[in-house]
Specification:
Elements (H helix, E strand, L loop, with lengths): L8 E4 L15 H14 L3 E5 L5 H13 L7 E7 L2 H11 L5 E8 L2 H8 L3 H18 L2 E7 L6 H13 L4 E6 L6 H14 L7 E6 L6 H10 L4 E4 L13 H10 L1 H4 L21 H12 L20 H9 L14 H5 L8 H10 L6 H17 L5 H13 L2
Parallel strand pairs: 1-2, 1-8, 2-3, 3-4, 4-5, 5-6, 6-7, 7-8
Helix pairs in contact: 1-2, 1-11, 2-3, 3-5, 5-6, 6-7, 7-8, 15-16
The structure holds 3-methyl-2-oxobutanoic acid and zinc ion (ZN).
3-methyl-2-oxobutanoic acid binds next to strand 5.
């Protein structure tokens, strides 16, 4: 029997579902840079890609498995449809990783069965255990997802999950693929699974959700209250259509409100133990890196990492915060690494510090471009004592990307 963990496992899918955002393609080196940042951030599992989907994805998963999936590092995961060729490709790409997981999926909603897969429920009940068992013959750690679980018949879903666990799935992931559910419905779905899947204690319950109605994060928090212990999310909430649940929002909600969540994880309410392994101080710079490399801007009013998330515009708010921060702030900017990172360089900073900071923000410049940007930086630094990350991004975008 698998003891349910008393903390929340963070499964990052920025490099798989996140990369499915329209226009957000990443090359192998960029994926490697992001995977390195995710490991530094402290995510437990990195879903590095979909190896069968393209040679580029195969190579990226393999390189990440080799360079980031080292002893003591995160588990590296590859996605696979419930077919032998997909599962085999995932196992092959993941070989170099110290800890590896195959994530295989098959839809269970009637809409998907009838219109997309042209399969019967009976066929699904046959394929799922067969393919989970096949994945299990290649790696120890297997995750199964019934795609579109949110719109599936719960009784059928219970049967499919039971068969996946019996065949060796160690994590069962419940996707709200089209972001359709409301928080109370998602909570009830997880509770239903806990109460009705006889062997559920042998697996970890995970959740995956999209933000079509802007409810993904709220849905996950309700799922945690009902027994989910793994959250699948992306940096800045990037992903298909309106995106996936945003990691920074989930992690900070669990961090700031941990006394509220503690009892749901079987801890004393006043426990100060963190609920995730995430080093929250790495959140801000990871967010900037992902935004710069994917070209997906973060909206200014985005929770946690938006440019205005810690800004106070009105006189009343400014006055309040100056008197006592807690009047209008529920968390410290420093807790996401903002203050340290915001003011990073000044007019006395050297070329090396400049290059290093740009690299951390996702900009790898040629020597010529670096020289151009550095000259511009010195001009700006002469006028403006403190240079922020936003200034640095503006310098690169003005001097290089639009030149
Ligand atoms: O949204 C979804 O259902 C997925 C699955 C592959 C887990 O991304
Ligand atoms: Zn998804």
């Amino acid at each position: 029997m698998n003891k349910q963990p008393d903390r929340i496992i963070i499964f990052d899918t920025t490099l798989r579902d996140g990369e499915q955002s329209p226009g957000a393609t990443l090359n192998v080196d960029e994926k490697l840079t992001i995977a390195t940042a995710l490991a530094r951030l402290g995510v437990d599992i990195i879903e590095a890609g979909f190896p069968y989907a393209s040679p580029g994805d195969f190579e990226a998963v393999q390189k990440i498995a080799e360079a980031v999936g080292i002893e003591g590092g995160p588990t590296i995961c590859g996605l696979a449809r419930a077919t032998q060729q997909d599962i085999k490709a995932a196992a092959e790409a993941l070989k170099p990783a110290a800890k590896k997981r195959i994530h295989t999926f098959l839809a269970t909603s009637d809409i998907h069965l009838e219109h997309k897969l042209k399969k019967t429920r009976q066929e699904v009940l046959q394929i799922v255990p067969e393919m989970v068992a096949y994945a299990k013959s290649l790696v120890e750690d297997v995750e199964f997802s019934p795609e579109d679980a949110g719109r599936s018949d719960p009784e059928f879903l219970y049967q499919v999950l039971e068969s996946a666990i019996a065949a060796g799935a160690t994590t069962v992931n419940i996707p709200d693929t089209v972001g359709y559910l409301t928080p109370s419905e998602f909570g009830a779905l997880i509770k239903g699974i806990k109460d009705n899947v006889p062997n559920i204690d042998r697996a970890i319950i995970s959740v995956h959700g999209h933000n079509d109605l802007g409810l993904a994060v709220a849905n996950f928090l309700e799922a945690v209250k009902n027994g989910a212990r793994q959250l699948e999310c992306t940096i800045n909430g990037i992903g298909e259509r309106a995106g996936n649940a945003a990691m920074e929002e989930l992690v900070m909600a669990l961090h700031v409100r941990r006394q509220y969540f503690n009892p749901f994880l079987g801890r004393p309410a006043d426990s100060t133990e963190p609920l995730t392994n995430i080093n929250t101080k790495e959140i801000y710079r990871t967010s900037r890196l992902v935004s710069n490399l994917t070209g997906m801007m973060v909206q200014p009013n985005k929770a946690i990492v938006g440019a205005n998330a810690f800004a106070h515009e009105s006189g009343i708010h400014q006055d309040g915060v100056l008197k006592h921060k807690l009047t209008y702030e529920i968390m410290d900017a420093e807790s996401i690494g903002l203050t340290n990172n915001q003011i990073v360089l000044g007019k006395l900073s050297g070329r090396n510090a400049f290059r290093t900071r740009l690299k951390e923000l996702g900009f790898e410049l040629s020597e010529t471009d670096l020289n151009k940007a550095f000259l511009r930086f010195k001009e700006v630094a002469d006028k403006k004592k403190e240079i922020t990350d936003w200034d640095l991004e503006a310098i690169v975008n003005d001097e290089i990307n639009t030149a």
